[in-house]
Structure formats: structure tokens, C-alpha cells
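Re: export button greyed out
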Amino acid sequence: MRSNVHDFSLVAPPTLSEALKLLASDPALTPIAGGTELMVALSAGRLPQRQLLSLHQVRELRFIHANPETIVLGAGTTFTDIRRHEAIAEDLPLLTAAASWTGSIANQNRGTLGGNIVNASPAADTPPALLAYGATLTLISSAGMRTMPYGMFHLSYKKTALAPDELLYSVTVPRRSPGYRSYIRKVGTRNAQAISKVAIAALAKIEDGIIADVRIGAASLRETPVRCAATEKALTGQTISAAELPRLVAAASSALASEAKPVDDIRSTAKYRAAVAANLIEEFLEQLATSG
Amino acid sequence: MPNPSPAFNAAPLIGTSPIRKEGRAKVTGRALYVDDITLPGMWHGATVRSSIPRGRIRAIHFDSVIDWSKFTVVTAKDIPGHNFIVHLTQDHVCLAEDQINHYGEPILLLAHPDKEVLPAAVAAVHIDYEELPGVFSIEESEAGAAGDESKVIWRGDNPAHHSPNTFKTFHMRSSDDHAAHDDGLAKAFAEADFIVEGEYRTGAQEQLYIENNGVIAEVFRAPNGAIDSVTVSGSMQCPYYLVHALEHIFHLPAEKCRVIQTETGGAFGGKEDFPSVIGSHAALLAMKSGHPVKLCYDRAEDLIATTKRHPSRVRHRTAVSKEGKLLGGEIEVVIDGGAYVTLSPVVLSRATIHSPGPYHWPFLTVRAKAMATNIAPHGAFRGFGAPQSLFALERHMDRVAHTIGLSPEEFRRRNFLSAGMKTATGQHLTDPVDMDGLLSRALKESSYHAKRAEFDRTNPPSPIKRGIGFASFMHGSGFTGSGERRLNSLVKIELTADGRPKILVSSTEFGQGTNTILCQVCAQTLRIPYEDVLIAQPDTSVVPDSGPTVASRTAMIVGKLVERASASLLRTLAPYLAHPVPTADFDYSAACEVPSGYTPEDFRRAALAYLRDRGQLVSEARYEAPGNIFWDDDQYRGDAYPTYAWAVYVAEVAVDTRTYAAEVTGFHAVQEVGKVMHPVLAKGQIEGGVAQGIGYALYEKCVWQNGRMANNQMTNYIMPTSADLPPIHVWFEEVPSIHGPEGAKGIGELPMDGPAPAILNAIEHATGISFHEIPLLPEDIFERMTGSSSSGSKALNPAVDRDTRSESTVSP
Amino acid sequence: MTEITLTVNGQLQTVDLPSMKRLLDVLREDLGLTGAKEGCGEGECGSCSVLMDGELVNSCLVPALQAEGAHITTIEGLSPETTAPLHPIQQCFLEHGGAQCGICTPGMILATHHLLAKHPQPTMEEIQEGLAGNLCRCTGYMRIFEAVEQAAKASAESTP
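Workaround output, generated via the alternate export path:
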């Protein structure tokens, strides 16, 4: 334990409005929800933020509302909450899968969707699925609420659109419309408790053998979670069939190579990540092609 | 065996699975590990370490932001005795004074009553260095040994005996007649149908015991203020090693250095010699502060500062006939020892002796050396050199087989050692050895041939390539050659006040079952219930030196001594057993036969009667070398180990060509171990060792950055979780050895030797690609499979980590 | 410094401490419950795991203030008296070699307890997943899986 906990303060307002008031008056306050990220930094002596604001007890942030068109998840929803929710399992299976791969059971019980998004690691597990699903974020401050497409939230490495006095309030995900096929795969250092080396979450709608719509979210291919827009463009409107597969895979790989900028880091290499990402896309396309 | 009395079933205990002696405390969370313990007035310690791998200390500044008056500060100048950690050499400093030879080298120590203030204090010690370029690889170190002065980082005491940078060398030949041997070897190569060469590498591996290193030290002073004695408690394997270290640090005799082993949360060799370092440090702080001092590392520090498995480079050059017979071989074994000699000569020794494996080599030369690098000294880790050389050998055997067109299995069969043959050191194998039978059994239990055929059929159209491979090997139990004679181990058993036997040994429990099996041996010999036998916590003021808990020697060597001491105790009690009702004329001091058919109650009564008459009963047994063990330390010839356990391991793998990741999908471990003393414990040992071997092969990479372990957190040092391991099937065969109780041989390290080569052999079957280096990461498989120029996992960049640290500063 | 009140192993405890103190340290230092261990400080090894309001958590990652009002179960809570009968999971770990060095054992047993509460008759896959957050370096997990299966069987047989 390399921090002196006496140097830190943690306040735990019971309501959302109190939390927002505190944030408004002192934007240096750092929110902490489940603590599965910030407490690691604390133990390592690498938490520069000294004044923390606990969101764990703000019950208004922990909810899952299944509406006819959307499912709205409060930022305080834990991964376990997500895994246990039937409507999510049925309509947003990529999100359920992503939640099941995040850390361990113990960390899933504490880690929150909001923390996963706001911590903004490029390797975070839920963003690829949320990007593919076209999620919308609702941000809140004492001045009010605003929404934005999730795709606009990550500005650059660990920099998000969240203002200092804002909290992420909720994530709204359109319920899957019929006809969308989905795919998700995470490649880590081992089968459990692994940080992504690369992950792909994808949805595609096939109409009359044509890829009418395709969305691909990726982790660890850029400095933020991203939609692979060029790859999507290369695939949209294309015929998907066993015969067309090689051409399609080549086009997708080429497009992916143009937009993926993975790095060599302590866990993996850029070339590996790029190659595996392309393989995952190929696997996705194969599944689309063979399902008829 | 005497007829057991009806009241007590004296069925043999050895071979059954009684509850672990200290098990209840462990499952109820009441077992006390060192960090669970607090002493009155205890302070906490911390270590200030170098942030460069090589250079000199120019100056040390203590930042005034800290009130240093409240701290105890210890430097090398405070050491009352010698500033070295005693090993076979004296080059390993306890605290660096001037020269720095590895990142994280301890320079000074701090203590304070409040542990929360220590991290900031450590950060407030600013050290100016004159940095020198470090040497971080075997090749760079060899360049220094070959004459590049800029790469000379270590010189021995006697330059005549050592090349620079070279801790130790061995030159082992398979014959006493060197000239004839060298001629014969040359002839073998000249006449060989095939000459097969190969180079194999293994990386460092971290023991990763879940309990970090830690100790608590106290120093006691005489009324005149002189240091009277030192007591250190903590997590360790070898209490007497630490005694020896403290003797030198404090210039105290052994009786004044008391060491106590606390419940130890895993060790695997990582707590064999390292406690001498941390124990000395804590004791110095206790000395200077006047308080007991607890010094416990966190994970990040333990990973940076403590020992790891020696990386290795092994080269084979093999002459073989087209009939598949080994004609001769040259093996070069090189290990990276880190910055100081420490245990490298002994690791090298075992690596050398195991390099020929379980095969008959008509002519064999092994040249071995341990090289210095500017990395924290490498040390003991389960297997101790054998996993390195056996990895190379068993990969090479497959390579040779492929080259000459024989199956890996057939090639082995044509070259196995068997009973009556001699090993490469000239050891006569007098016990039955049936590697052929073990191989057949392993292949049968794993359905090897059927699976091989099945995978050959299913692989081509599938993105998952499956493979199956095996390794055949052996592991020597006990210390090399005359080592056991030198250890001269002593075991005692005393009767407690309530008439129960209590085993006194320095052999430590750290999960492998020491307490349990030694109590089984004693209970069986005394014919009393297992529950009635006690074993003392290893406290050197109480227990004799039964040798270190290493080298797979505890069950066999110490177990045998416990058996003898138990038998001796029984003989001493015999008169009281024979004559339970005291009569005036019976001479209790005359020896008599141990009666048959006594009950545990009889034993207890006899024990109490003895104690009443004599006060105490302590029986003992000291190691006696079997008369016919011969070992020449200079020539490296003779009986290298008292005995060997023999094994064949089969690994089944699946390589996903989309992710290039290899996974072990099935594992079968067949071994001949003399006697399975405790089936549940024995299975647990093999399974645990196989798991570590799987980690060694496919997951556990140390990522170095300028001689520092950059991935010093559990998030980034990848050990297999429960979701990564396959079902591990374990089978035992038993050919009793005279050396161990009921014939038991050592099994602690054996399971570490087989998995890595078996797995890479399987991966070669699966992919057709021959890999020679471990750990084998998906990035490496990707490189070879796609022919990309990515340099595999060598391209990992330890300086970049966007996910577990934010990219600001990387602190030491 | 903040005062927090929490229930640990059925007993109400009030402690005065820094609000960011780790629950692990509260248990070990303030309450003398040393069964939870620190193996990594990063939430990777699980040797610090405890049950918090019935859910398995890594106590090294929980700030004390967030445990206010919570019900915590530590390993000591499974068999409160040193001479009490063992919890069936503890008994199975003993009989089947689930504990070797023992340092992961408290967390592993609580993880098992949590697993069996959610999945009384778990498949091997569920066992592997349920315990994937608890690292064991000694056993290779096989004896632990066996202990878990036996514990599941034992509770099935004892449940009417």
C-alpha cells in the first residue's frame, strides 16, 4: 500500500443532486464508483487526485429501465447487474458478453458501467459493444442534462467530453431490431481477468444478401475505443455470400489497416493487434456468409 | 509387521490421505502468516533501492520535506559484521555502498512506527548516480568474458579461475578417460548419418507465491548495550540459511541468531535464499531502531527485487545413426545468473546433470556456464536448472526424430536408459527403470495415437489446429553427489509432557505437505494414530538442522530420518511397552524387543511412565550416506543423486489461427515416484507443478526494460487462472527406493520439467512450426505463422501501458 | 477521519478511520480479522475477497466509507468458534486437498460460498468462471474443483 490514506478524503453524498452540487462547487473532486480502477492506483501510490466523491451510495444512478425502444442503464449499474438482466441478455447480447469478460466476478460486482466508460481506457470492455449498438450518453450537472452519441464522447487518449462538474448519468441503448446478426470477441492475455489486446463487437443487418448496415466497435486499436468507420463503409452495400467472402474480407482488411493504429505496449504488439483484428472481422464475415 | 491389536487399526498410514496437519487453521483463516502478526512496539521497514541497473552512487540527499528525526535510517556502514549475504561466494552485498549492479539493488533501509509514512519517505531519498551501461543478456555478458572490457560487470575473487562475467563453469564428460572420450566423440560425429543442431531458450519466470516475502525481526541487547541476539520470524523455506546469514551480518554465533518460520504462503524456491536478504535488512533496522521491525514487501516490490528462474540458452549438437541411435552429443548450457553469484553454481550443476535426460549417450560432453548480468540475482525456482535443460533436450529429441524420419516415440525407445545402464555421469542405475513402460502407459492414457490421427484429419479445414506431444524425463531427488553428506541432516523427536511424539525438524511446510507426511511416517513407525503426532514450528532455538527444504529431499531424506528417529524412540520405550505395570525388579534400562500388538493407549502410558522416570525423551537420527555413493565434484562423475523419479508427460493443445493463441486442452502426467506417501497431496503436487509448467511455456513472460521488470504487477505478469488450465490427469507408478520411507522418492520438482517441452512438441504437431523459445506468446506464434517481420514478443514495449497506468511517469 | 458502522460476521462494528482506508486494512488492522490477505493490492489475486451484502468483492478495492452500513462476511464468519464444526465447504477443502499453502484459501472458500449460493449445482464451466478471480499458485485448481463439486454434492444431499 503505497499511499498514505490520511492524505485523501472521500465524501459520500446520499443523493444525486447533492453529489452534483458538490461537484459544481469543487470541480477538483474526483468521482469514484466501484473503485476497481481508482483503488488500484491508490494502492500503487499513483492516484494524484486527493479529494474523492463516492457515487457508490447514490442509488439514483443504479438502475436498468427496459423501455419498448430502448434500455437505459444508470451509470452506477454494475457488470453483475448487467449480466443478471434478462432483457439485456436477449436484446443486447454483446453487452452481456462484454460484462462477463470484465475482470473477475468480484470486480464485476463492484465495477460500474459508468466507471468503465469514463475511465476511458482504450481497452475497456463495454465500449465496443456500446459503440456498435449506437448508445447515447446522458450527462448531468447541477446546471442540467445533456445527451450525446457515445461515439462523440472519447476525444483523445483518456480525454472525454465530460466537463469537470458533470457526471455520466445514464447510457441509453436502442433495443436490437430484428434482422441484426451480432458478433463479439475479446482477445486477452488469458481466458479470464485479462486486459484486451484487441476486441471487436459487431452488428450487421443483411437484406437480400446485401449488408444493409454494419457497425463495428473496437478496443485497443486506437487511443480510444472506436467505431471502425472505414471498415464499415467498405462493407456497407456489399453482397455477402460464400463466393464473395474473399473479396469482402480483403476489402475489410484493407480498410481496417487504414484506420487501425494499434501500438506496441507492455502486453502486445501493434502488428499482432492489427492482424488479429482483421482476423476477427474475417470471422465475423464468415459467420454472416454461412448463416444464409 | 506385528498383528495389530483389535482396538486400533494400525494399517499403514503411508499411502493414505489424512487431513493436512495445519489444514484446519488454513481453511478457517486462522493460520498466521507473517503479515498477520504484530508485536508490541513494532515498527515497519522499507527499502530504498537503486533506480539504475549499473553504476556508482555519487551522493545521497534526504529531502527536508520529511522529518527524518522520527525515522531510523540504516546504511551499509551500520552493519556490525560483514556487508555480504553469505552464499557460496561473498560478492552479494547486503546493502550497496558504492557500486550498483542491478536495478532495485537495496541501498538503505528506513523504519518508522507508522507504515503509512514510509512510501513518501522512500520517495524523499534522492540518490545521484554515475550511470554505466548495463549488460542484460547472455550474449552481451559473453562478449565481456571474451574481451570487451566495456561489458565486464563482474570479476571473481580469483581471476585465474574465472573469466570475467563467468560465475561458474562445468565441463562434464560421459567418461573418466578424457582422451579416449574426446576421440570417441569426434569419431561419432565423423561417422554419424545425421548431425542435428539446435538452440533453445527459456525466459525468466517469477515464482509468484501469493504471499509476498516478509519478516519480523527483533534484536536483544545485553545490559551493557552490546547486541546479544537476533530473532527473525517470517516466510521462508530454510531457517538455518538465514541463521548463517545473520551470523555474518552481526558477527554473532549461530546460537545467538534465532530464526522462526511462520506459516508460509507458497515458496517454490523463491524463499530459499532470498529470506537471507530481507531477514538481514529487518534485523539491521531492529538493531538500530531498538524496536521489533516488520518488513513485508508488496507485490510490486517483490516482483522487482526478488529472485526469478534463471533464463537459459542451451545448444545441442547430436550425432545419430539412421537406425535412430544416439552416437554422441555436445551440449552447451548457459544460464543468466543476474548480478551476483548466489545460487547460480548449484542451479548450473543441476542443469548440467539433467541435460542428457533419461537417455543413453555413448559419448557426451556438456559445457556449462553461468553468466553475470545487471539484473536482480536469479535464484531457486522449482526444478532449479532442470526445467531449462530438459526443455532443450526434449525439444531437441523431437527435432532429431523428425530429421531422421522416426516418430518421436520410437526415437525415444531406442535410446532410453534402463536398469543396469550408466547415466552420463557414470551412475549405475541399480533400481528398476522402465521408461519404455512409462511411455507406453502415458501414450495409452492420453489416447496419444488416436488423437494424433484425429487431429491430422480435422486440422486442415479448421481454424483451430490441434496437436499432441510428449516429453520424457527424470528428476534427481536430494542434493547432488556429496551434498547430503555435507548437509549432515539431523532430526529429533521428543515426547511432550502428555506423552505424545513431537517431530523437531527445520524442514518447512509451505503447502507441499511437509508437516503431514513427516507425521504420517512417525505415526506409522510408532503404530499410533496420525492425530497423536505433533510437529514443531521450525524455530532454530528448538529444532535441529535437518537441511533446507529444497531439492525434492524432504519426503525422501528427511522422511527416512524421521522413520529412523521414530524407530529409535520406540526402541527406547520398548521396556515400558513390554512391562506396563511397574515392578521393582524389572530393569527398564535394559534394551528389549519392541512388543507386538500394543495399543495407542499403551504407547501413551509407556511414554508417560518413561517421562515420569527419566524426565525427557528425545530421540534423534542423523543422515548416514549409503556406503556406495560416490561423487567426484571436480570431474563431475559418479552418483549424481541418490535416486531419480522418472516421468512421461503428454500435452494436448489447440492453436487458434485467428488469435495465434495456444491453449493446453488436456494433460496427462505419468510418473514413477517410489512410493506415493499421500495420494491427495501427491496429486496436488503434480497438478500444481504442471500448472506452473504451463505458465512457464505459454503465459509467464518477464518483460524487461533496462534490467528492470516492467510488468511488475499481477495484472501484467500473466499466470494461468482456473479458466486457463485443462483437466490434468495424474498417474503414479511405484518402484520403491531404499532411500526414502516406504521407498518414497522426491516429487516436488519433477512436474516442472515436463510440461513446457511437451507443449511445444504438441504445438509443432498442431502447426508444423518448430518453436524453440519459451514463453511462447501468441505474438510469437503470429510472427512465425504469418511470416511477418514483427519480431514477435520481442517487440513488446514495456514503456507503454495505456490501460493499467496512465502515461505520465513510471516510478521505480 | 470518519466514523463508520458496519456489520462484520453478524457483529455491529463502529470504527473511526480515514474514509479512503481500504476495507481490507479495516478488517485486518482495526478489527483484527486477518483471514483476508493482501496478495497483490490490484484486485487480481482474490486473496482479499470477502462477501459484502452477499456479493463477492475484493476488499483491497473497497474504500471504507463505501462499507458504511454493509454486511460483511469474512472467512472467520464461516465457522465462528475455533472448535465449531466446519462449514461444509471448509470440510471439503480439507478432505480433497483444496488448500496447500493456504494463503488463497480464505478468498477461495468465500468465492466458493458465493458460487454455490448462486449456482447450487454448478457445471465445471461455472466453477471455473466462479473461481477465476482467485489465483492459486500451488494446486493447479484440480483439487479445488473437486472440493467444490463435493461441497455442492454434500449440500444437495443435506437439503431436504
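Chain A has three domains: 5-54, 59-174, 182-290. The button fix ships in the next patch.
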